[in-house]
Amino acid sequence: MNPDEQNKTLDAWQASARYWEKHRALIAQMFAPLTAGLVQDARIRTAQKVLDIGGGSGEPSLTIAGIVGPTGSVMYTDPVAGMVEIARSEAGRRGLTNIDFRQCSADNLPFPDGTFDVGVSRLSAMFFGNPMADVREALRVIAKNGYVSFAVWGPAEVNQFFSSVNDVVDRFVETPEQDPDAPDAFRFSVPGKLAGILKNAGAGNVVERQLNFQIEEKISPEQFWQLRTEMSETLRGKIARLTADQLPIVKQAAIDAIRQYFVNGKMSFPAEAMIVTGRKG
Length: 281
Ligand SMILES: C[S@@+](CC[C@H](N)C(=O)[O-])C[C@H]1O[C@@H](n2cnc3c(N)ncnc32)[C@H](O)[C@@H]1O
Known about the structure:
By secondary structure, the protein is α/β, with parallel strands linked by helices. Helix content is 43%, strand content 21%. The site of S-adenosylmethionine has 22 residues, from helix 1.
């Protein structure tokens, strides 16, 4: 990715930070199975030093701080100032003392070789500027035999949490064909793609695990529409291009498309992700 594209990606995340703060509790709850998958596959336990790359509004750092306990530590990193700020203030609210914050990108981790026992990244690898170099950089700062684990989304078709609203909006707003290697939630949805990058970056024992779970929360279709259209910079941009007449029509079409996932006041979308793990040799 060239520097202009990378800056565009970071600007989009900066603009999203206030919405990720607004919906932080919901995001933590909805995607908790991904954190559990990372903790399991990266073998995170008490007293470890853990690096989180692209920690966004605070996960998985905040959960892992509780798992490693007072004798362990977490280093939260994210290149976007707004994200670092909201994650740091949440850690303060919770009184966590074993977590540090650093504003930095995956391609330039300001730590000496072998600093951490384990590295994790939840839903951020798909936005890396140069995934191969960035995975290599993650491996550099992990101690020998330590694990690095990345959680990424499976295919869009089986992740209706995202595609149901996207597909409706795309019927109204022209969307250019996308480069499969451009930063996007589904950049690593092809099985083997991220695992291949880990292998080429020098990781050993690379394992890709498919993780199926339900994204569940007690919210209504209207609340979901608001959540989705606020969390995503791409959707916010597309919605801004709709005319005042189109907006209620698009919203209604999206709500009709998602209604099947809402029963008895509860949202439940089937979701598919991958946890890709390697070991520093
Ligand atoms: C989908 S959010 C995930 C945030 C959080 N880990 C979570 O799961 O809730 C993606 C995060 O990746 C971060 N990000 C974007 N480009 C990055 C890069 N080059 N290196 C590290 N993180 C990056 C963004 O700032 C954003 O916080």
